[in-house]
# Entry
Amino acid sequence: MESWAEKYRPESLSDLIGNSKTINDLKNWANSWGERTTKKGVILSGPPGCGKTSAAIGLANDMGWEVVELNASDTRSGDVIEGIALRAGLFQTFGSKGISSRNLILLDEADNLYERARQSKNKVKNYSDRGGKSAIAKTLEQTKQPVVITVNDLYNLTKGTGSKIKRLAMTLKFQRPSAVSVAMVLNNVCESEKLKISQETVRAMAEVAKGDLRAAINDLQSLSEGNKEIIKEDVEKLGARDREIEMFDTLNVIFNSDNYNDPRTAIFNLNEQPREVA
# Structure
């Protein structure tokens, strides 16, 4: 079954919701790419589901660029990045009519390239990204093609050995879309899929998503399976599910962290009373 998040992914930058200034800055970067004053890469930073990947793909469509994509994978290493992204970036490409064209090198969810948290029996250990950050920096230095990097956590990408990445690439920050904007997209999907749903239920789904548009569309698809009508009670189950996930993640940090600050921060950010955690 086709993912609705992919089926309804915006095809052009003009189809994206919100972040108008950031999108305009991205257009300007693309239009001036190749000039001496323009950086070869751009980092799109922001929370999940806010449109970073869609912006990169929409930009490529608008510019007539082919996309060479590396997305999240537990098996990626610096060697893999160099073997694909750097190689694609070093060579000029030609379109079907033999006219020189560009590739857009997309390193999607680059957060997953480095310092993965892995659990041991009694603490959390950080492991290196096996050269991932160095390979990204090398790609930015040597590429002859535009590079777009998407991340949820800019700090983790650019700290330590990643500081060079920040110097070599422009950074653009994406914000979460409003609940009103999310509801508007959900209404369009419901109309296309001929779903029966009240505006009250659509608004409730948009609120539950907390600005993660991709998650909202995935939830809509999940709730629609087997029926053509979605009611508010269905959405309330999603809210309960999210609270369970948040609680599980918090307990995971508490029991596996080897310092005091991480559990304290996790409990502070959890939308529950301390007695509920205890």
Remarks:
- The longest strand covers residues 41-45.
